[in-house]
Description:
The chain is an alpha+beta fold.
Amino acid sequence: MILKKSRFLIPVVFVSILTLFVVGACSKKAPMEPEAGAESMTITTPPVEQPAVKPYEPPQEVVVVEEVKEPVVMAEEVVEEIEVGDIFFAFDVYALSPEARKILANNAEILRGASGVKILVEGHCDERGTREYNLALGERRANSVKKYLVSLGISGSRIQTVSYGEDRPFKMGSNESAWKQNRRAHFVVR
């Protein structure tokens, strides 16, 4: 019986002592009083001089600059004259066919003659397959076109790529005729 009480009593006593210790350690202590005869130290910082703030003065003269529009018009004329051919792909393929390589060689020649022009290569797919798969396939198609144009000497900084997957079909329809025209890499001249 005494053994059963001590099993219960020992943890209770231990928790009580621990609680007293924690409460006593966390109690607020009174601030210390300086000893009699001890020198007190005070630290003072010298004042910092603030720079004088000048009041706002409005500008005396207003100069109007007119925009020159000729270079923009010239760039637009160059863009309108450039026509590059689209590339078409077989079903579920992003590799370039020999015919596509010929078209890209012609496109590269045109782009070499217009060195200030940038292009966007859009990768497109037909409606078959999931949306996610077609977006990835369209991206691979656009990137294969870009890679080939770079190998022909066109700077990669002039070529951007984007994939629209099946979202922007060239021809509506659910037949081979429509699908064939929708599997493409389309060029947008900028």
